[in-house]
Amino acid sequence: MSAHCQLTGRKPGFGHAISHSHRRTKRRFDPNIQSKRYWLPGEGRHVRLTLSAKGIRTVDKLGIERAVARLRAQGVKV
């Protein structure tokens, strides 16, 4: 599972880990990605989405029907 939110588009950020002696090494900041299963009442089936924590809150706010409609408008196969 890639660290990419289907709804919000959040991806890993890159930067430096800075030690106490101030040496810099490359690191990766991953978003909090969860795989979540939702029931689509309009289609009578479940869908599994890969969402960030903010994406889950967005689905809770909009509703799953509007969130899936937004995904399909972006061209994501659901």
TrEMBL record:
Pfam families cross-referenced by the UniProt entry: Ribosomal_L28
Protein name: Large ribosomal subunit protein bL28
Sorted UniProt keywords: Ribonucleoprotein, Ribosomal protein
Name of encoding gene: rpmB
A cellular component term, taken from the record's GO annotations: ribosome
UniProt similarity note: Belongs to the bacterial ribosomal protein bL28 family.
Spans annotated as Disordered: 1-27
InterPro entries, alphabetized: Ribosomal_bL28 (IPR026569), Ribosomal_bL28/bL31-like_sf (IPR034704), Ribosomal_bL28_bact-type (IPR001383), Ribosomal_bL28_sf (IPR037147)
